[in-house]
Amino acid sequence: MNVPANLAEKLTTFTERFSPRTVAVYNDNDIMVAKLEGPYHWHKHDDTDDFFLVLRGTLDIELRDRTIRLNPGEVFVVPKGVEHRPVAHGEVHILLIEPTGTPNSGDKATAAPRIVA
Amino acid sequence: MNVPANLAEKLTTFTERFSPRTVAVYNDNDIMVAKLEGPYHWHKHDDTDDFFLVLRGTLDIELRDRTIRLNPGEVFVVPKGVEHRPVAHGEVHILLIEPTGTPNSGDKATAAPRIVA
């Protein structure tokens, strides 16, 4: 991983939605890119905040009491323990950061495998 | 901080070089934007990796044995303990992540104060 990662280039290497790819590692966190489309499911992470940076498209992060709308170049951190549902309007590309080993669905049984791009 | 941050907008709120501004907090890390211009000095962080994402311009991260060139949309993580010198070609905008309280110069005596944008 000790090389630079071009995010756009990494995003050309896969088409799967909601399947993050690790592009770098920072202090036991995975720096990942992902393609989203449509709604994900409601979930939360009890042990970690959830970092989103939108690279392309428009992403709503629904919280139980409000919706955060993110356009390219916008960042939002969902605090640990807070239920949220990402809803992607069309195809959306994001950079996300989570501690290595965090299940993306909030549940190890349903989590996507962690894949290095 | 529990609101979205538009990185370009945050970058319009200051002009100082090498003076990172915190735009969000993730698990005791500061998510920051900074403007760089010209060379910084050689330094290292013994306790943390150093995450760079270039948003605008061209940044060289000189290591003792090679130089990493980063253009917009490119990420590099300098591993902890590795000496490096950022050199910005003209005005460069970056997103960086460091544990809250990390001195940007690697030395508390010369570090820029941490400022919330």
Short overview:
Chain A has one helix at 7-11, and strands at residues 5-6, 21-26, 29-39, 50-63, 67-70, 74-78, 84-99, 115-116.
Could you characterize the architecture of this molecule?
The structure is a homodimer. The first copy, chain A, is mainly beta. Chain A has one domain (about 5-100): Jelly Rolls. Chain A is about 5% helix and about 50% strand. Chain A is globular, with a radius of gyration of 13 Å. The mean pLDDT of chain A is about 90. At the A-B interface, β1, β2, β4, β5 and β6 of A face β1, β2, β4, β5 and β6 of B. Chains A, B: Keywords: Isomerase. Chains A, B: It holds the Pfam family Cupin_2.
Reconstruct the topology from this structure.
2 copies of one chain form a homodimer.
Chain A: E1 5-6, H1 7-11, E2 21-26, E3 29-39, E4 50-63, E5 67-70, E6 74-78, E7 84-99, E8 115-116
Parallel strand pairs in A: 2-8
Antiparallel strand pairs in A: 2-3, 3-7, 4-5, 4-6, 4-7
